Amino acid sequence: MPILDALRPVTGLRVLVTAGASGIGAAVARAFHETGARVHVCDIDRAALDRFNAASPGITASVADAAVSDDVERVFHDVQGALGGLDVLVNNAGIAGPTGPIETIDAAAWERTIAVNLNSQYYFARRAIGLLGASSHASLIAMSSVAGRLGYGFRTPYASSKWAIVGLMKSLAIELGPRGIRVNAILPGTVEGDRMSGVIAARAQVAGVGVDAMRDEYLRKISLRRMVSAEDVAAMALFLCSPAARSVTGQAISVDGNVEYL
């Protein structure tokens, strides 16, 4: 196969993206759709889904809390009806979680962060495996974070969940490789957007500094001295589902401009 053809995802892939109505999830969903994939997204935010559907006709959707197993079952019922099977699962659902010293983080905030960021990965992966096993182009992408390879003071629930995602991915790659299912994790860095702005504002408050000063501090930690875009992350997802990546599995791949420390 010519190398340029190998870099393009197979046309007609059936793709499920969790938390796909905005941010990275929406960018990933649109990128796959533009390559000719049939895409289904789910999201907890009905209003965001309505806006996404209006802007992206042809992509089907379900309202669901990715941390609730019954909701996940309903998503897969919808996937069967809309796509008739599955080639790619992009496990993208996640929240920022609380910011603060460990002694100030209450149990409910900790548990919700773990439920959304980690438990959702388990719920969707376990349900998707039967469908992916019937595909000749099966790929599972777990969305982790640069906080899944570095310590992240005052963001312990988030960092803990993102490290756990890498462990889950590494284990599933071993478990599912003999069945032809590739499993990889993408570790986005500081992604420009509303969510990151909120994280920076919360971190600035904890540190007692201005928001602009905290933003500059984040940029100084990145070798390229700039944030990445959601489209940068989507491009990596496309690569991981292309023939060029047919031997890539079990990998935690950073898309972060090289964040040196957090």
From TrEMBL:
Keyword flag Ribosomal protein: no
This protein's record includes keyword Oxidoreductase: yes
N-terminal signal peptide: none
Domain of life: Bacteria
Record keywords, A-Z: Oxidoreductase
InterPro entries the UniProt entry points to: NAD(P)-bd_dom_sf (IPR036291), Sc_DH/Rdtase_CS (IPR020904), SDR_fam (IPR002347)
Stored PROSITE patterns: ADH_SHORT (PS00061)
Any one GO molecular function term: oxidoreductase activity, acting on the CH-OH group of donors, NAD or NADP as acceptor
Gene3D superfamilies given in the database record: NAD(P)-binding Rossmann-like Domain (3.40.50.720)
Family: Belongs to the short-chain dehydrogenases/reductases (SDR) family.
Organism: Rhodoferax koreensis
Entry-linked PANTHER family: 3-OXOACYL-[ACYL-CARRIER-PROTEIN] REDUCTASE (PTHR42760:SF133), SHORT-CHAIN DEHYDROGENASES/REDUCTASES FAMILY MEMBER (PTHR42760)
Protein's UniProt name: 3-oxoacyl-[acyl-carrier-protein] reductase
